[in-house]
Amino acid sequence: MTNKTITILGIESSCDETAASIVVDGHKVLCSPIASQIDLHQKYGGVVPEIAARAHIENIIPIIRETFESSAITKDQIDAVAVAHCPGLTPALLIGVTAAKALAWSWQKPLIAINHIHAHIQSVLLEQMQEVFPAVAMVVSGGHTSLYDCRNPLELSLMGQTLDDAAGEAFDKVAAILKLPYPGGPSIEKLAKDGDPKAIQFPRTWLSKESLDFSFSGIKTAVLYHCRGQNMLGDNRVETMSHQEKADIAASFQQAVIDVLIKKTLRATDKINAKTVLMGGGVAANSTLRDALQVACEKQGIQLIVAPKKYCTDNAAMVASLGYHKFIEGQFAELSLEPSSFHVA
Ligand code: KG4
Ligand code: ZN
């Protein structure tokens, strides 16, 4: 390997954000524009895959063009094209993957396949220069809640994951129950600031004593029954609830999710003797979670590194940055690369 810089174009379209980014040497982000589709999906209370795919088609070329214009890089300076190809919504992933394949082919540059969840872990490492391994990496997003044993950006083994709803999904569903705007995470966090986290004892699902898996469907149902009566046989009280009552529900729900996330993460650090916890994904933007995990890690003498807020939700800088590590290792993809809703890499 020469000491020339490595410049990677990253492309991300796994859910409802179309994003591109140019990153030099894995950590210098030249630009990372994102075209969000929140407005399109808001009225449905969640992401509609076909609508997402159509919006990605409209946004993908403009966002890539913007990336080149604002970074003042030319296509000849790009060493490889990295794209998130799994997991995610297949029709949405297809747009980014097709664009990346077309560019790699026409520029005659290598194509790099990126696992979106692994990229969320890389979002934590992007601006980190210090030694952090062995680490437990927690990804808390709309689609996943996973704990990894992380030895380097490419050596990740899954230690536990959600058996049903992801943490972000629970935030989104509870927000829908409380008739708060989509996406639910930021809405719940804002409302929870006015509430008492001890007001309602929502259940914490621990599974077995040793388990590193998660389950968040029970708490969502508990909130639903709290608002609509057991088995939904009561009136829907949400319309008539005071601001304070709603805020207490939001704060108590948020606290229950945070308690479980923290306890399982620390359980994982014990298991592998990790000296660091890394946290990324959309829910990692939640300040109450960030602060509580910081306090818990400090008590155990463990260093916590959380993704900068701008890289918590979906972006392409994390894709390009992980692409750098795969480039160095010569881990390239074929032009026959397909998108997948499941983990395939
Ligand atoms: O990582 P991300 O952008 O997309 C996926 O890969 O899923 O995460 C989106 C999720 C949504 O469920 C959203 O409600 C949640 O992250 N989220 C939050 C916050 N900001 C975004 N959850 C809790 N608190 C927040 N501040
Ligand atoms: Zn994501």
SSE layout:
Elements: E1 7-12, E2 17-24, E3 28-31, E4 34-36, H1 38-42, H2 49-71, E5 80-86, H3 90-107, E6 111-115, H4 116-125, E7 135-140, E8 145-152, E9 155-161, H5 167-177, H6 184-192, H7 217-228, H8 243-272, E10 276-280, H9 287-299, E11 303-306, H10 317-328
Parallel strand pairs: 1-5, 5-6, 7-10, 10-11
Antiparallel strand pairs: 1-2, 2-3, 2-4, 7-8, 8-9
Helix pairs in contact: 2-3, 4-10, 5-6, 5-7, 5-8, 6-8, 8-9
The protein binds 5'-O-[(R)-(carboxyoxy)(hydroxy)phosphoryl]adenosine and zinc ion.
Zinc ion (ZN) binds at residues 116, 120, 141, 281, 314.
Could you name the CATH homologous superfamily of the largest domain?
A: ATPase, nucleotide binding domain
Task: Report low-confidence residues grouped into runs of 5 or more.
Answer: none
Main beta sheet strand tally, sense and closure: 6 strands, mixed
Number of self-contained structural domains? 2
Q: What is the percentage of strand-forming residues?
A: 15-25%
- Work out the helicity level: 40-55%
Q: Given the helix and strand composition, which structural class is it? A: alpha/beta
Task: Quickly name the level 1 CATH class of the largest domain.
Answer: Alpha Beta
Termini Cα gap = 25 Å
Query: Which kinds of small molecule does this entry bind, naming each only once?
Result: 5'-O-[(R)-(carboxyoxy)(hydroxy)phosphoryl]adenosine, zinc ion
CA gyration radius, whole angstroms: 20 Å
The total strand number stands at: 11
What CATH architecture label of the largest domain applies?
2-Layer Sandwich
| Helix count from the secondary structure assignment | 10
CATH topology of the largest domain: Nucleotidyltransferase, domain 5
> What letter string, H or E per element, gives the SSE order?
EEEEHHEHEHEEEHHHHEHEH
What's the overall geometry?
globular
The residue-averaged pLDDT reads 96
